[in-house]
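[audit] Reproducing an earlier prediction to check determinism. Same input, same settings, fresh worker. If the C-alpha cells differ from the archived copy the diff job will pick it up downstream; this log only records the rerun itself.
[audit] input (489 residues):
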Amino acid sequence: MCAELLLNVTPSETRVAMIEGGVLQEIHVEREAKRGIVGNIYKGKVSRVLPGMQAAFVDIGLDKAAFLHASDIVPHTECVSENEKEQFQVRNISELVRQGQDLVVQVVKDPLGTKGARLTTDITLPSRYLVYMPGAKHVGVSQRIESDKRRQRLKKVVEEYCDEHGGFIIRTAAEAASEKELAQDAAFLKRLWSKVMERRVKYKTRSTLYGEPGLSQRLLRDFVATDITKVLVDSRQEFENLKEFTSEFVPELHDKLELYNGDKPLFDMYDTENEVQRSLERKVELKSGGYLIIDQTEAMTTVDINTGAFVGRRNLEETIFNTNVEATQAIARQLRLRNLGGIIIIDFIDMASNEHRKRVLTSLEGALSQDRVKTNINGFTHLGLVEMTRKRTRESIEHILCSSCPTCKGRGSVKTVETVCFEVLREITRVNRAYDADKFVVYASPAVADTLQGDESHSLAELEVFIGKEVRIKAEPLYIQEQFDVVMM
C-alpha cells in the first residue's frame, strides 16, 4: 500500500506521521530534551555486577545506570577472554566483566519508566543498505529478501568488503542495489567505525562515541523499502537538511521530498492532529457500532472487545463473529499507532464455534502482517483470551505525551464526593480527640463543600452535636476533589 510521510518540525519537537490509504497508521514523536538514545554508542564504566541476575549495571553518563545482561556480551568484544571466544557460549557474568571496568556498549532499548537503558556489547552501525558488525567475519542477509538468486548475488558482492575488522548484514532495501551503492555504504560504515574507535581512545569514560541521527533522518532511512509516494516537510531548514541527507544515503526519496507552505498546519490538513488525540483515549469506536477498550499498564496491555450498538442482521453468533473480525483490523492499527509493546492480552467476545476462532486468529495475523515491528500470537487460552507479544523498542505514544494524573495519581479514578465528605467528618473527629480547639473550619473543593452543606448537612449537624463544637465549611476553588484541610480555631 502506498504511504505518505508528514514531518512536522519545530526547534523543540519533531513529529512524523505515516499515512496509508488516507489513514494515520503510525506517529513518531521526538523531543529534543528527551531524544531517544537507541543506537548510541558509549564508553561506559561497570558500576555494579549482579551474579544473581547474570547482569551488570553500567554508568554511561545518564541519570539511571544502564543494564547489561550476560547474554548481551558477545564473543568478539574486548571484554571476553580468548578462551571464551573459542567456546562461544554465555559464561557467568562475574567472569565476563568486573566492577570499575571500561566498556564500549550500545543502547538497544531506551529507558522505560523506572528502568534504565538496555545495553549490548554487540555493536552494529546501520546505513542505507548495510549494517556493519565490528569484530564479525561473516555476511548476513535480511530474511525479507526471498529470492535465492538475489541473496547469493548480494552476499557474494558484500563478502568482498569484509575484513578482519568486521562483517555486514544486508538490509531489505539493498535488494535492488548496485555494486557501487553497496561499496559506498560499506566504505561509509568503515569510516564511521574508525571515528568511533578514535574517540574511544581520546574520550573519557561516560562519553558518547556515536549518536544516532535525528528522527526524520532515521525514519527516511528505515522507511525507504516501503512504497513512499510523498514526504511533506513543514520546516525549510529541515527540508534542506533532508535534501542533503537523501541525496547521499537515500536517493530514491530525494525527488519525493516536498516543502509544505500551506496556510493551515500540516497535521490539520490531513486530520492527523485529531487522530493523535483519539489515540490517547481508552475507547475506540468500530464502524459497526462495537468498540474496543484499551488499557495500558506497567505489566501488560489489555484490549476488550464489545458489540456495543451492533445488533447484526442474522443471529447473535454471527454478530459476535463479525464484530471480532472487524476488531482485529482496529487492534492491529491501534498497536502500531500507539506503539504498544510487551505482553498484550485480547479479550474477544466469546465464540462457541472453533471455526470462528480460527478465522478470527487468521484475520488478526493478516492485519498484523503490515506491522514493521515483530509480533508473535500464541492463540486462544483456556479462558478464551488471545495472548500475543509485540517487540518494545521505544516508549508508547501515551508515555511520551502524557503523565500520571495529579488528581488520581495514576489510579485512573478519583474518590467520589460522598467518600471525601465522610473522610472530612472522620478527620474532624480524630483532630477533636487529639487537640483542644474551640471550633473547626473545613476548606474543601466546591463540590465537597456544597455536599457537606446540602445532602450531608444532617451528618455534619450530628457531628457538631456529638463533639459540642461549631464546624464551618468554606469552598476553596483551587482544591481538587480529594483535597481538604481541617483547621482548628
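[audit] rerun output stored. Observation attached for the diff report: The two ends are 72 Å apart (CA to CA).
[audit] end
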